[in-house]
Amino acid sequence: MRNIFIGALLLGASVAPCGAQSGGVDFFQSSLSEILDTPLLAASYAEERPSDAAAAAFVVTQDTMEKRGYRTLYELLADMPQFQLQRNSDVRRLNLVSVRGIPGNERLLILYDGVRITPPTGDLFAIASQLSLRNAERVEVVLGPMSSVYGADAFSGIVNVVTRSAGISAAGMSYGSFNARSAGFMAMSRLSEKEHAGPYASVTYVDRGAGNPKLPDYYKDDYAWYNNQYQAGLAKYPVPSTVTVSVPVSKYDAREDSSYLNARLRLGSLEMGIIKMKESHSSSIGVKPELTLYTKDARFGTGQWTVYGRHSYASPGEEWKLTTLLSYYDYEIDPESRFINSYSGYDDAYKYASAQTATLEQTLSFEAAEGLPVLIGFTYQQNSVLPYTADLGHKFEAERSPLSQNFVYNGSTIPVDFHSLRYSNTGAFLRLQKQLADVSLSLGLRYDKNTAYGETWNPRAGLVWRPGGSERTVAKLLYGEAYLAPSPFHTHKHFGSFISSPTASSGYHSYFFHIPNENLESEKLRSLEATLSHDVGENFRLTLNPYYNDVHNLIQDVTIGPGTFHGVEVDTLEHAQNTGTMETYGATLKADAVLRAGRWNLEPWAAYTHSEGRLGSDPIPFNSRHTLQAGVSAVRGGWAITPKVLTRSYTRNQDGSRVAPFTVVDLFLRYSDSGKDSSGLIVWLGLKNILDRRYYHAAYGGGADRMDGAPQNPFEASLGFTGKF
What we know:
Elements: H1 2-14, H2 32-36, E1 57-61, H3 62-68, H4 73-78, E2 83-90, E3 94-99, E4 102-103, E5 108-112, E6 115-116, E7 136-143, H5 147-150, E8 157-163, E9 170-176, E10 180-190, E11 200-209, H6 224-227, E12 234-236, E13 244-246, E14 257-267, E15 270-282, E16 299-314, E17 320-333, E18 338-339, E19 349-350, E20 354-369, E21 372-386, E22 421-436, E23 439-450, E24 454-465, E25 473-484, H7 488-492, E26 495-496, E27 499-500, E28 508-514, E29 523-535, E30 540-565, E31 568-593, E32 595-597, E33 600-615, E34 618-619, E35 626-636, E36 639-648, E37 651-652, E38 658-659, E39 662-672, E40 680-688, E41 696-697, E42 710-711, E43 716-724
């Protein structure tokens, strides 16, 4: 099967289809080409159409987001080809994303207006409802490795949310099933009529609470313990599994809360802004109810904010342009975060981590010769990190020294280890592009030197061919490499507990401990992909995109065996180690169209993705071999109706067990009494899982406490309105 996909890569890059029928009528204000080829910046730091970018790239416009009902980035990515999102899968990250079969939120780089909002230190991050699209003008998605430009963690792809800087202000709210609610506003001012000159200011704020269905009422077999023994105040320990313990009975609570703030000010060529996000969710999600408590206090939350300033200067003749970006990023696990489960003895087990990153980035673009644009970049990053802690017996106080707070390991008087890390990263990159008749060649190379893990080189080479200069047919071939720096979470994560042992010299014994490993190296990715795209007439486009990825130095938890920790004998020690390899390959066939049926304008889309691979000698987890995503936006006057469907074949949990195939259907309806840039009222209705199916996503974690799959929400409805003024 792997050989078939490698053959498809070469075929897609070298064979153009025969000439298609010419003509066709454009029934729309925006043509299909304009919808799919809105210029983007994320692929190369320079504006180019997705069809001209060597990588597989997509742009989702504001108009498309409004028709389909995307209010968060999570919802948009769930419809994106070669993305698979596992909802309610992970107690720490909530939702887990895989791109081209490579799982991990930390492997996807997310930007807002070109400014990083995912942790530069690779810490835990939830791709959830805090990633609002309320003020988004477009979303740029680039698949594949991009470390040749962006450095660490541009591993599986790049997402850049470009927000609106001017236009109509708006405010709105919504309410839905299971007490789902949101409220927010977007205020914009423009003090100059000169386009893109400013000055201008904008502020957007959204507060959101996702629906909190009582899943034990809908998945009675999975939550049999909750519905029976737990109501009598009983829970269990995993070992021995026959032992029960008395616990307090409380109301079921697995809600998710989030907030989003984005403020920008532009004065000519100077831009300043702040982006702030918070998200919290149940720290029991996806765990067997006999081994955890679904209470309001069992929460895991993260918050991050970025303040930045950016200045651009172009020479009088615009022969060259220099852009400087200064930013400061602050990340924190909410000190209230805690687990209340069998491993904590049903006591509060608090968690904490924090990180601060200061970044300087400069890019210089110029044309070295006719048709030879050059981009040179330099970055410097300074990081300060307090890594993810062991279980803490009480809440961490961020304003106090960790050692002054008298934390001890569970079951002992041994003080908890806290690590304070400081390290820097210096990087430089070069990108060249040359147009040769019908072929565009691009080359990129980035060098990084990190004081914690050493040096890396990451090349990238791409080719874009338009046979005969055609605008209808495009063939691409791209080779790229990327690296993922070992995060403090992996290098310094440690957890376990002690028990009293009068016969031991230390007075304690431990059955298990995960210990730090400061010698981890970067994960490395080599990727090859091809794209073949053809416009059949003016209103229909077919795209084929095969890919192949090879990952080595994969960081995995490895059992060491017996040993000692803090002088205490431990039966089983475990730590992270660069031992894993992963191979993923597949292809997507995608169709987009614009049609007219009577007085209705139709925008159908469909994508079939075949994805498979190996993690070591086993099939890759969090991946469905067959995925179909399809829908159609029907527009008439102020009305827009969008039904869509997602079908997946079976998926594998982290432990390799299978999760059943499923099909889920959603529907979105929207009415607007005004144009995009006019005052007026918008009313919308969102219906999710309209067939009210009971289905599962893959579960993260392979321990005895994990469910066989993560149960998904039943039918949900939400109604909202937005006033524009």
